């Protein structure tokens, strides 16, 4: 694990981990038979960017007691995460308030955060707004100053380069968006042939082949950094039910290679929440149902392997963590011995070390209430010890 994160976890009194000769994780002298909670932190739902701009004027629905519009921009809806390797993380806020029409006053932003497991809190260290000052987006944007909003793009996945630049996956195209370290767009949005979201169809007149909000929900980077693997959240028209396209994109050539893989959902009604690389062949994929609270049943992290060893044309899937059944023998954060993550949208997974992952929810502020009915969800950040190491590529772990 990166040194800073390891120290934070150790200081929190979380379970100390070692490896036995059999490769089974060992916690406090007892072998771990199932994934185990080792850290918990949360950012309160009502956290805002100080001195920003009003937001939420067009939003409607059950706001769980909050009054709209807000005086500032909420720090919410985490839909993608990039590890900075120093105990801080760049986390992508979602596009706003659930729809394109309701999110024109939500500024797209990357938040810089740091979990503090000793206090079960998350520090907000700043962030950057996403902009297009050079005019690479060829259609009219919401704002004349070319600050991007949730009516322009629905950003859902993020990869950070060694130079601090970002590749971000969008759902309204779906598009790949390339930003510099200051959040300025570096090139025109890159479309995926044959996949057209309704938002793009409405603007261009081209027939939609994907449902709304079913674009690039997850995006992995190959360990050498050359390739991106954006994963669609929904099935493309004409594809078998529950099958999701994972395309290979060459960052050096700035185009798709033509290689495509297929992820099969356990149910056509499920969706994916994130996808990240373990090595050149394997990915961690969050798959979830649409329930929350009492109706949340299926929230899982799988290992998906593109080698397709059984030759069925699909990524090979192995269950890694059932997020509705995580061991919590020390009753961390006041929860019982079985910890659940009962949120509608769980959209962030990151590998901390070869036997520890972190998972975050998207709280859809102020609409979701999976933890307590009628109460807007916080953004929760959990760390989970795995029974066996991932044997991840060392470049993923650095």
Give a summary of the structure in a few sentences.
By secondary structure, the chain is mainly β.
What order do the SSEs take from the amino end to the carboxyl end, as H and E? HEEEEEEEEEEEEEEHEEEEEEEEEEEEEH
Unreliable segments (pLDDT under 50, ≥5 consecutive)?
3-8, 10-25
Fraction of residues in β-strands: 35-45%
- The number of helical elements comes to 3
Radius of gyration, whole Å: 20 Å
Main sheet record? 4 strands, antiparallel
- CATH level-1 class: Mainly Beta
Structural class, judged by helices and strands? mainly beta
Signal peptide: 1-27
Keywords: Signal
Domain Phytase-like: 73-365
InterPro entries: Phytase-like_dom (IPR027372)
